[in-house]
Amino acid sequence: MKINELANIINGEFVNKPFELSVENFAVSLKQIKQNCCFFAFDEEDALVAVELGVFAVVLQGDASMFWHKNKKGKFGDVAVLAVKSIKDAVLRLVKFFLMEKRLRVVASDWLILELFSHVFLPKNIRILNSNPTRVLFQILEAASGDVVVMESEMASKIALEVETLTPLKEVANLSKGSFFFTTFEVGGAFFKDLAFARIFAGELGAVVRFLQTLGVAVRFKNLREFGHFRPLFLNANLNLVGFGEGQKVIVVEEDERLLARVAAWLRSQTKEEIRVVFGEVSRESVAVVGDFRYLLVHGEFNEVALAFSVAENEGAGLFD
Length: 321
What we know:
Blueprint: H1 3-10, E1 13-14, E2 25-27, E3 37-41, H2 44-52, E4 57-61, H3 64-71, E5 80-84, H4 87-101, E6 105-109, H5 111-116, E7 126-128, H6 133-142, E8 148-152, H7 153-159, E9 164-166, E10 173-174, E11 183-187, E12 190-195, H8 202-214, E13 231-235, E14 241-242, E15 249-254, H9 260-270, E16 276-278, H10 284-290, E17 295-299, H11 302-308, H12 311-320
Parallel strand pairs: 2-3, 3-4, 4-5, 6-8, 6-9, 7-8, 15-17, 16-17
Antiparallel strand pairs: 1-5, 10-11, 11-12, 13-14, 13-15
Helix pairs in contact: 4-6
């Protein structure tokens, strides 16, 4: 890419008069610098190091002319210095350019559906993009022409592209009965039975399945119990952690505060039992104060909550108290 073309793409302004150069690589950290590289510098100190490492161009945020004049007696050689109002916006403009140049099929989804893609085996031509613009740039550069890229809707809106949008599949034929923590459903003629997956999110999972079906991709799930939402812990009458499905009491752990209201409402719609929500640090003592319960919704980190009710943990504590 010619340096003048890069300047036009990122809306950058030259603060010196470089020779007609071409850049072949991009970097946002000093470790990423390669030959014929353009470095996006977040501070002047890194910019100076990048120059010493032999970059062809440096992009700086703000008044790069001050940086240039302060350091023009240094070892700049033919390094081009470009000023932009925002490094983040400059990177996003570059992302948009490569998306169009490579004719990538862009699909947008909410964060929860995007998270579910990591629990499905995907072919190499489907890429799930990070929410960090600089990381997205390198994912796009690695993509082949015509690949499919899935990104969060907020990111897609910033790039201002026309995209396909995935939403929870309302018409998913949810055939689940009994346990909240297993899902049976049918999508596009394909039947999925007794998946170890909370059926509250059947619509989101259905959206992923339907999308892969449209691409002709065979749907194969990883361990869905590792999906980090609506995860159950089963306790016996003494509030000790027992095996899956073996306890009379269930703590439903939700790590993301954005889902708490939805999870609580769904639980209340599925059972006549009172559903209580616990915030903050959870312990055997704090749960005992709640009194008798069948389902308890806890906002916290799953492994930390599980540890609080493990038999070994509580027995160990008693030995040294």
